[in-house]
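RECORD CONTENTS
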Amino acid sequence: MLLNCHSYYSFRYGTLSPAELADEIKTKGYRSFVLSDINNTSAVLDTLRNHQESDLKVIPGIDFRNGARQMYVGIAINNKGFKTLNEHLSQHLMQEQPFEADAPEMNDVFIVYPFAGYQGKPLRNNEFIGISAKELSQLPFSPHKHLQHKMVILQTLSFITKKHFNAHRLLRAIDTNTLLSKLPVSEQSAPEAVALPEQTLRAAFAEYPNIIHNTETIIAACKVDFTFDKLDNKNLRHYTGIAEGDVQKLRELALEGLSYRYPDAGPPEYERLEKELEVIAKMHFASYFLINWDIVTYARNKGYFYVGRGSGANSMIAYLLRITDVDPIDLDLYFERFINEHRSNAPDFDIDFSWRDREDITRYIFERFGTRNNVALLGTYSTFQHDAVTRELGKVFGLPPAEIDRLQPLKSENETTDPIAKLVHRYSQLIAGFPNHLSIHASGILISEEPITSYTATFLPPKGYPTTQFSMLEAEDIGLFKFDILSQRGLGKIKDAVEIVKENKGVTLDIHDVRKFKHDEKIKELLRIGKCIGCFYVESPAMRMLLTKLQADDYLRLVAASSIIRPGVSKSGMMNEYIQRYRHAHKREKAREALPELYDLLKETYGVMVYQEDVIKVAHLFADLT
């Protein structure tokens, strides 16, 4: 019976979280509703997921509006209809076009025009006129009273209490940048946009059984389903076109990489390669590896420097494909920390590029993989923060800047006797945390098998690329895992240094040949004395002091230093213990005598658990955990 319900993802309009909205609907006796935020689908996937097992049926829709003026409500009959609605909204948002008064012909969709705005256009089979309980008194005198067979109930739900309606008016004033006292009625909702009890709504339409029947027919006809599983891979499924081709391609590239990474490869390297390939193939992640390989291959061909980091460094396949430059065998890194059959989250490569090159990498990804509208930047939500809301509300109430400044530190209404100040504090408490507008994730890009509009509408931020209306949390829940394309200013400096060396010395450096750097005596000397200014991650005063204390002159000590300086290790006392054991042989011997099994297991770190892998080793050996 509820064909138009708004959450606070109707930005600067709605006042209810999706959970509050659903609770209110159930409280009033309804068992279904259309979630139709204004020009937005941000709440759809999460709301569908949260009610998979409940007795409340969620139907996705969109309230299409030009500003605050309602044009029509679109309701998805099925997944195709949801995609159609997303495409329609995306087209207008991307091109910044207003919506026409008449909806275009759309399959698998119901269209509902508001009674107040209906001008008498011929209605298609899937189009209806929506009328609220308050508007029923006008129906006998309407020129459209003969169209009752094409009418449905359109009882919009935006609020629960008067407080929510007041917050709505304040949000509208903020959005229109006007004083609350001058907010036009056309820019705000009617206060009647609340959920009447289900029986009350039925009683209001008792004389119009056709309208009730049409409404129930629409609700019964709609069903939109998604599989929510973080490992239900909805990314681009096949790089080569078929799964077998992806695995074969991955094997070929890995074998090619062996000669570059391991010139003297033996059984350990081949065994690790086969083990990783087996898991990657079984979990259908071959395409994910190949796409990352494609991206970094393009970068190398263009002369762009990059660094692959994160848990992806635990993969030898990633090392062989030159996605990362960390040798997991040399460092005894567990592949299972990156991918294993019991892990609930998908793998995730973080790849840093120079700030100069990142935009071209983004362009390449869209052009290389986005031929079917299946690539988008990942969105995020910018929320109202308490201080900002206080300032905005102060402006809406017409307070001068000095008085607004005095309101900022208030912790309670009781700290002031000014009634306006009390209102500002009261409603800032309510509005703080509401989503304010959509923004862009710092680095995430989605490359899906299906068009992105199968899951969300898109908008066009200043970056100039389609961007989803949901965040990485909803993306992960539906089985879309992002490609992280980050920016690191230091990589540009490295590129400059390499070019200067080539120009002045005639020497071409391969910064991906990490083995040479590990054994360079000049580098070792600089590490021992802590001369690391300009070196990303190890240039802070604390890190340089730690390197000097350790007199670290090899790669393993450098890696250990970068781990023990983290708050968890350093505050626990393990950092100091590691330093003491490293510098004093008798302390190492004492530790070995106290716990020989533990010391032998963590010989590289003198019996101190420095890395996450060390914790895994201990749990596996002593607690028999897999």
About this structure: Residues 15 and 132 are 20 Å apart (CA to CA). The radius of gyration is 30 Å. The longest strand covers residues 435-447. The chain has a mean pLDDT of 92.
